[in-house]
Design a protein that fits this description.
Number of helices of chain A: 10
Radius of gyration of chain A: 21 Å
Largest sheet of chain A: 7 strands, mixed
Distance between the termini of chain A: 28 Å
Strand content of chain A: 15-25%
Order of helices and strands of chain A: HEEHEEHHEHEEEEHEHEEHEEHH
Largest interface: A-B, 72 and 73 residues
Strand order of the largest sheet of chain A: 3-8-9-14-12-11-10
Low-confidence stretches of chain A: none
Oligomer: homodimer
Mean pLDDT of chain A: 97
Structural class of chain A: alpha+beta
Chain lengths: 301, 301
């Protein structure tokens, strides 16, 4: 198989699956794309059907203090998206209009709001968990739009994308056992769809030189795993599913306690839904009607 | 029926339907809420099943120049959300961290990006329609997260919410006939769900004193209709479905032409999905299992 970003993108656009826009990473998705995404998401949820997770949807904009309290801005200042708006009076509104209509910069008319874009699917749930967890901890699933400020013409690197997320909070043993169970489930699901998926230890793209040390520590402690699939490159396969063990970080910041009054440990895992869809289109072609029988059966039943 | 915002909100929170967050208008939605939302959306789509609309999903963040070109900032500067991020070097990143961790303002570390939050569900589609329309125009449906900077503790006034949107582009007669057909469909659907829905001429909340004149013009020309349902107030019912006729505005700005080379006319209509869900909870109670048989049948089949 060839891995040529330009040709892959071209084939997606020509098939109508994605609708290009002026700004990289903000394309539209068509009905066929959305159907595959929904079916894939349903296949993931089917794996969890006996787990009885609580389900929540939080909006794409979340409380800004969440990223302030969790050191997100220390690690990924360049990826965070903060929401600004106009707080002025009528005279200032006229100045804003004049600047916009003259094609001038108008960023100085904007002030920071109380919300930022959700940078990671699990973030909004932690502040809602403050207090003591039930005996067996909590298991949550979410379906969220996530934002990363990394404009790119490479289709799998989006500014806004959806994640099917699972979060487990509890005592360390439970949380780790749960993560390991899902690592197997995730890899198996993707392989069963004919995708050359491989699990690997991973590290986050921490900002700057100090980031290298943080990455080394993360790899050392095996806090992050990813299921990787070659989509636009064989050498740099795409992370389609990500597993993160946070130790007691969120438990400490948000006062989430275990029944024996320790800071709860948390882990999360997320399927990057658009990336999984792109992996399927890359592997099986842009027309789902022509996909292998076993893949169609798994997704459309 | 009583219309008491505080008690209504309390009943939603106690039933677990919404999960409060620190910032007004950014609450989480639970599984029951999401199920009703999905079923209501399916009921809307069922009305359109013989119309064969194209379907697209665009992300919550869109090309900033769309709101610059369409005079959105002249009319609603206070409602627009623009996305900022950090563009600095390592030294500046340390300053950002220091400010955040000291609890100081850090808005001056942020610069405007190329994206803003989508302020109206139909906006992202217009720039993709540049060129000549097919003979019968185009009919599109979308499922989108929309942002408005209007923090409020009133649950139906959200910062982020979802809209099931329909857009028609073509010659004026077609567009108007299509809008009128949907006005009937929308009102009938909501009434069939036991909701006291009423159609009325409406106006947008244009900013400032000049806004009053714009509102008067909009009402004069009957460019905007809304289906209103009392949810938190009898005197100020909630707009649950909105119909907008744009004349040739978007056709002109984005070069969308009819086959006889006129600027295309466009109209859109959107169901505010969370608002429709809230209207159902208000009317029939917080437990969908106890809703009237005919309502349950229409939604769950």
């Amino acid at each position: 198989m060839e891995y040529d970003v330009e040709n892959f993108t071209k084939s997606l656009v020509e098939a109508g699956l994605i609708v290009p826009t002026r700004v990289p990473g903000t394309f539209g998705r068509n009905a066929v794309f959305e159907d595959v995404l929904a079916r894939f998401d349903a296949a993931v949820m089917d794996l969890a059907k006996n787990d009885n997770p609580e389900f929540y949807v939080f909006p794409p904009t979340i409380d800004r203090t969440i990223i302030e309290k969790t050191a997100y801005l220390d690690s990924f200042p360049n990826l965070a998206g903060t929401v600004f708006s106009f707080f002025g009076n009528e005279k200032e509104a006229k100045q804003l209009s004049a600047k916009v209509n003259a094609g001038e910069k108008w960023s100085d008319t904007q002030g920071m709001t109380e919300v930022c874009l959700n940078p990671a699917a699990c973030y909004p749930i932690y502040p809602t968990m403050t207090g003591t967890l039930p005996e067996k901890g909590r298991l949550i699933t979410m379906f969220q739009w996530v934002y990363r400020h990394e404009p790119s013409n490479e289709p799998t690197r989006m500014q806004s994308f959806r994640v099917r997320e699972f979060v487990k909070a509890g005592v360390p043993d439970e949380v780790l056992a749960w993560r390991d169970m899902w690592a197997k489930r995730g890899e198996e699901l993707l392989q069963s769809l004919g995708l050359p998926a491989k699990m690997d230890v991973a590290a986050d793209p921490f900002f700057g030189r100090a980031g290298k040390m943080l990455q080394a520590g993360q790899i050392d402690q095996k806090l992050k795993f990813e299921v990787l699939i070659p989509v636009v490159s064989l050498e740099k396969p795409t992370a389609c599913c990500s597993f993160n063990y946070h130790l007691e970080k969120f438990g400490s910041v948000f006062g989430i306690r275990t029944p024996n009054d320790q800071a709860a440990h948390t882990a999360c895992l997320g399927f990057g839904l658009e990336r999984c869809v792109f992996a399927l289109f890359k592997q099986h072609g842009v027309d789902p009607k022509k996909w292998p029988e076993n893949v169609r059966k798994r997704l459309w039943g």
